[in-house]
Request: fold
Amino acid sequence: MIHAIGSSIASFRTLAFGPGLNVLLADQNLASSETDSRNSLGKSSVVEIIHFLLGSTPARGSVFKAKALVTASFWGEFTFAGSRLRVERRVGDPDKVFVTFADEPTVPLRSEGDLIEPYVDLRDWTDWLGHVCFGIPTSTTGTPFADGGPSFRSLFGYFARRRGDDGFSKPHRFASVIPDAEGHLSLAYLFGLDWTIAREFERRKQVSKDLQAESRLAKARNPQLATLAAVTAELVVAERRSAAVRDELSHFKLEEHYADLDREASATKREADRLSRRAVEIRNLVEQIETSVSTEPVSSLGDVERLYAEVGIQLPDSARRGFEEVQAFHQAVISNRRHHLAQELERNRNLLADIETERKRNLTRRTEIMNHLSGRGAFSDLAAIQRRLAEAESRVATLEGLKDTLQRLESDKSEQKVERISLKRRLDLDMQARFSAVRTATLAVDEALIALYGTERPKWLRIESTETGPRFTVSVAGDRSGGISNMEIFAMDYALFKVTSERMGGPGFLVHDSHLFDGVDARQAAAAIEIAGKFADAEGLQYLVTMNSDKFGSLPFSTDYDARSKVLPVVLEDTDEGGLFGFRFE
Reply:
């Protein structure tokens, strides 16, 4: 329960609250023009201050981000679980919470700081609130909460929705940033179902997302090997290639003098080729000498006499004697030439034989070297084979890793499917076992919806067991105009207020900002305030409503409920000094 809210700001309009219905109105000053607005007077700021005092962290756009409030502090007086206390937080130092109890609390709250300025750590403060309001253990060791679960801040938003959080869009969540699954988990806890099943659904969902992300990454890295079959086929080929290179390496013999022998083999090959060309030259020369020897011409005296006789002249004796001398000289020259050619021929034949012998020796040596090097290699050859083997084995390892990943992903997907089926079965059984909790929640929502729309229009709260976890849906059939969506939210909040107060105590109050009633027909707005106010009156709880005075004044409340007597004495006005803070600021 909230008793009072105030601030260190001297002009702040301190608010005092009582049990039952409390209505804070914003009024239009007589001097205001039609264009003056009451949207900045502080109606929504009341909700912000309640959240701030109860552990919220101001977000961007929050009133607590205003420069005008940086030195301010805010305080509130509350009663939680029978313990009355005063809590204060400073805008400029929000991590410290100053809590003073009227009496020693049943559940102790650990303090820090010194005796002059004792304060509570923000986390300890919200943990304490979670325990006294919603039964969350202060020590989670050995409890289901040890692995994560609802907290005070994840539950309290249903009891004080804020427009800045987009809190008036969906019944099952009080802020747009909250995932649907988290909202359904919180509702399962508040309504008394096994919330750990919802948590497990969410974990399975996250695991599935991680598996899908990993699968997409694996396929992106190897688009040609996106399936297990493709990877398996490629691995078979890669293993065969690796084995072939490994076999080549196992038969490789290292020749330390490989380079020298390789150079010698090349040299002997070049020398043999040179000798072959030289042998051709000598062979041609021998053939020429042999031809010269066999075709050398020899002239005779008979040839000269026949020449003279043919022309009718007798060869004189003097000429005959001269020719005989010439002939003898010529024969001597020929004889000498033949002897020289014979010697030259013999020398070249011997040279040709020596060249051929040397050529054969070089070819024989090269053959010996090549036979010796067969199956052997240099260090560079060994390194090249080892490099090819490393590349082949790396390819095999990569493919094996990819295959293992794809196999694991396929296996994990199958396991996830089995686990989802198992969780769905657990949820079905839990809803059967806790039918009384389902019934209580359903009737609480139905109570609110009947008060709003009577018995003719189809409307319901459905608590479903789905393949993705529990789902809570409030729905009113018919035309969606007239603020029906907002009244679906009201019905959910009312049911939570009622069920939680009866089950675990809860915060002891429900706060509805005027934005919840935007676009709502006056009859439904009056019915909502009346049913929640009556419940709060009867149970000693609180229902706080902020609203513009003209809107509130037009509401057709029933004659048996005097809602107008519940209006707070502080009325906010659209003047510079008439708002909640007593001054205007950006």
Confidence is low (pLDDT under 50) at residues 30-39. The chain has two domains: 2-193+434-573, 256-377.
